[in-house]
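Contributing: when you submit paired examples, paste them exactly as shown. First protein:
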Amino acid sequence: MAKPLNGSGRSMPRSNEGMRLIFSAVVGVMLGYLFGISFPTVNITKLHFPSSIISYIEDRNSGITTQTLLNHAWASANNHKKNSSESNTDEIPEIYVPTNPKGAERLPPGIVVSETDLYPRRLWGDPSEDLTSEPRYLVTFTVGIGQKANIDAAVRKFSDKFTIMLFHYDGRTTEWDEFEWSKRAIHVSARKQTKWWYAKRFLHPDVVARYDYIFIWDEDLGVEHFNAEKYIELVRKHGLEISQPGLQPDRGLTWQMTKRRGDQEVHKFVEIMATVFSRNAWRCVWHMIQNDLVHGWGLDFALRKCVEVRARCRKEWGIFQTRLADAEKAYYLERGITPPNSTSV
């Protein structure tokens, strides 16, 4: 009996066989892709599936098996993976510089600015033309309006080589505008705080790194005989890391050891009312200041910790050089060799 034909003239069974072939191919590709992702190192030829699945998706008449389709899918997945890895080699690696400051490791070193300054800047024009001078010294006073006249006299002792910074513990800042120098000074206002509270929060070593010396002074100092330029000369001459000017012998409650002596240039005691720090010493002292001990009592007795360590380092370096030279000399003498005249380290 003749088989009925469909509208296109082809028999229905052959059409079903074509659908089975397409279905088998699609399933094979999908399985191959999934197994290729999940098991990238597995040998696909060693995979075995239940016979029920194989018989369902296998086209016996065409001779194309699911295993063949899976092998083809595996090869395609490998090619895709290879192409992806080759394209990844062309990607630009992410920046990570562990020697950058903490938190800035993902920045290129050339853009990192870890220190700043207190130099005021204009709001217009070329930034490179903002500064007409760059003071090398910073002078800070913790002030109230009641000491306005005394602070004015003190500030006038300093030239334009010094940056002036006022910490206002009474919150009154506008009254200082009567002084011309006040318009160039830096004003910080926080009510009822001490100078060490201000110093800890506004004089971080990286903020004042441009200054060779930092003056942290009280508001009630007598400066009749003080000469700022000469004082800097003495500090540099004697290599003083932490210092203070000698105080007037007849002025208020003053430690005997901190009084000015006419026959000496320096003495060996510093207290906290008129302290001057070198840049390096201040970096040490700033870390020693406690956040909650705002009065700074006893701090002057601990300041030596920030200078003796450096002296110890220099001393140890000298001892090391001597020991190394002696060891080399002993080595040559044991072998009957005349030691060289000097040792380079």
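Second protein:
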Amino acid sequence: MVSSPLAPSSPFSQRQQVSRPAAADPQLALAVADDSFLRSLLTDSLPAIAHPHEIGSVTVEIGVPLPNAAQGRMDAVLTFEHINCVLAGSYPDAPPLPDLHNHREYQAITPCHSDLSTLAQNVSLAEAEALLARSGFEPDDVQHILNLPSQGWHKSWWYSLTAEGFLTVPFQRHIRSRSYADGTCTLQFKDHYAQQRPEGFRSQPQKLPVVVHSPQVSFCDNLAHINLSRQALATPQAVLIADDLTELEVEGYIRQNVSLYRQRSLEYLLNANCRSCGQAKCPLQGVDSSPVLACRSFKPVDVGI
């Protein structure tokens, strides 16, 4: 049995009325949510969709129609950049360059190589520079890649994710560029790895539905709507925003591959209280007389899954 703060103390007791802020429109709260809150839907749900280091950009669409208009609409669709591999040392917490002492150690982690893949074809130099910079390359490395001789390759160390979501598998990536008379260029790469080929260059977009729980309908009806939304997006995952589920409902949703997120956290977005906010950098944090009633960055000190 799964135990969760989403459930009351007794799994078979009636749902209790909980004191909470004034009723808010969950879809409106999602529409005005900032980047950190959207990320929390992925990292703080139960179970989590992704680790923080696996998430790049995040966007949300509200009220997306289902393919069959008669079936209604999805409350929201969350689109996020799922990071599959990172350039070694490209940010403070990124894994460092692998510690290799001889060629035998190098061969042990690079016995396989992929076919040549195209990262970008006939793009402007500005687009190529931006793409490489987003991937983590320093400006000097970007210029080195874009100005390679015809037979030259830029070699760099990367890490791919394990099945558990940890960046612990090193591989070497070879990148080359081709420049053309019209001012465009093409970027290509191939990977040298131990066993499993890294997925993509750096990241892939993923979509998943965000559904607001309807307490007035049954577990089965709520799940049916979630399944329609997942089917429309061709994804096995979904986030259900809910409060006060029974322990049986919590376990049932989780067993059906639905991640749960507290609705109260969402309502706080439209019911800000500066006195109880945990945003230490805000000048109004802790101010009793603050005129602010709604804030996208409101972080109540007692919110958690």
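If you have annotations for the second protein, write them as plain sentences, like these:
The first helix runs from residue 26 to 32.
Residues 9-23 have pLDDT under 50 and may be disordered.
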